[in-house]
Amino acid sequence: MTGAFAQGGDTLVNIAGAGGTGGNVTLTASAAGGDAVVIYGNSGAPGATTFGTVLSRGGQIGVTSFASGTSPEVGGTVDGAGGDITIQGGPSLTPLSGVVRLATSADPGALNGGSSVTFSSSGGAAAAYGGAAYGGAPGTGGTTRILGAIVGTTVNTENLRFGAQNGTVIVDGPIGSVTPLSTLAIGGSGSTVNFGAVSLGTAFLDQRSSGSVAFGGMLTTPDLTMAPGSTVALALNGGTNITDRLTLSGTVSAGALLFNIPTTLVGDTTISATADGGPLGLGTVDGTHVLTLLASGAVSLGTVRGQDPLAAINVTFIDRTRLGVHPSGAELHRRDDDCGGRDVDDGGRRHHLQ
């Protein structure tokens, strides 16, 4: 398939509550194995919203011009309630026996063919949706649920994006475990996202300003990038294999976290190693923001302020801390159960342990 659309009606009118309600999209594939569903991509760039593939989003208000042929819609803000998207193996959320395979379309013409697949069940913010004239109905997002594994066709080629503003995304199987995708992106702030294991050849992109995402299995990717100023809660519960770069904002948690790659802060960031005795380690750290580290095991940093000075580093630990270069002009706050209010000399500076 190349697309399935049940989005709410869009309008040029820029009045809250004027966007239509999205319908539900349900794909039931009873294949006993192999490819249960094959979805061909479009020509949108990785992480872009130029074209949709499976849409149940709420209608948009304030649209400048509607989609026509190969030209995408211009402008607009999601306002209506989103419907649900479900890919299942049988009635009542039966798991798939086969896989959902993403494929690259070779038709760049009328079908806008390419390698990017986009799901959207986004809805408008309930607080901003409607008024007395429209019944004040909440414009919440829908739920996108895929009850099985997602694979690519060619290694490091296909891209996948989920948009679920004010809604939920659940993928009940691994993503890219057989054939890794290139990029996985999340859009639509205020959403709750749950993945299992994910394998990517290029990057994981979280483009939201708020919400949460949890990985229940191993996340394998060269790059992990959060949006500037984001407050998203990122839970890396299944371990990580991130090899090139971290771009962070918001909160990051895992049982233990050890990275020896460059980290850039694009917003205030809290990183927490939640396991008893779990260590926390970073490579070089840059970015003009506050970094807070929480761990019950060892905490270690590489060079801090290799390029840009941090606003502050706050470290809460029980075991010990080893630090590289301190951020110029920033404060270092540390707490230790055994420190007893002592001053310590750390790299030529003195800090009070509270």
Question: What does the model show?
Answer:
By secondary structure, the protein is mainly beta. Helices cover 0% and strands 44% of the residues. The protein has strands at residues 4-5, 25-28, 35-42, 54-55, 60-65, 74-78, 85-88, 99-103, 113-114, 116-120, 143-146, 150-151, 159-163, 168-171, 181-187, 191-195, 198-206, 211-215, 219-226, 233-236, 240-254, 257-258, 263-273, 280-281, 285-286, 290-295, 299-300, 312-316, 321-322, 331-335, 343-346, 349-352. It has a 20-stranded parallel beta sheet that branches. It has a 4-stranded mixed beta sheet with strand order 9-3-8-12, with no helix packed on it. It is globular and about 55 Å long. 44% of the residues are buried.
- Please tell me what the overall shape is: globular
**Helix/strand-derived class?**
mainly beta
Radius of gyration: 22 Å
Q: What share of residues is helical?
A: under 10%
In round numbers, the mean pLDDT is 84
- The number of distinct β-strands equals 32
The overall number of domains is 2
Kindly estimate the percentage of residues that lie in beta strands according to DSSP: 35-45%
- Terminal-residue CA separation: 60 Å
Low-confidence stretches: 127-138, 319-354
Number of helices: 0
Tell me the major beta sheet: 20 strands, parallel
